[in-house]
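A note on notation is needed here, since sequence and fold are reported together in a single record. The reader may check this reading against the record printed directly beneath this paragraph.
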Amino acid sequence: MQSPENSEKFVPKGAVAFFIFLIVLGIILWFSTYFIMLSRI
């Protein structure tokens, strides 16, 4: 069993990277839709 100080330093890098990737993907999709709507005006 791990000691408490080891468990506090653990950071799931893969999950954090995936979460950031999803946020960036959402921003890209939102801006692409936004600029398409602006071009229709």
Remarks:
- The mean pLDDT is 88.
- Helices lie at 4-9, 13-39.
- The two ends are 62 Å apart (CA to CA).
- Residues 15 and 21 are 10 Å apart (CA to CA).
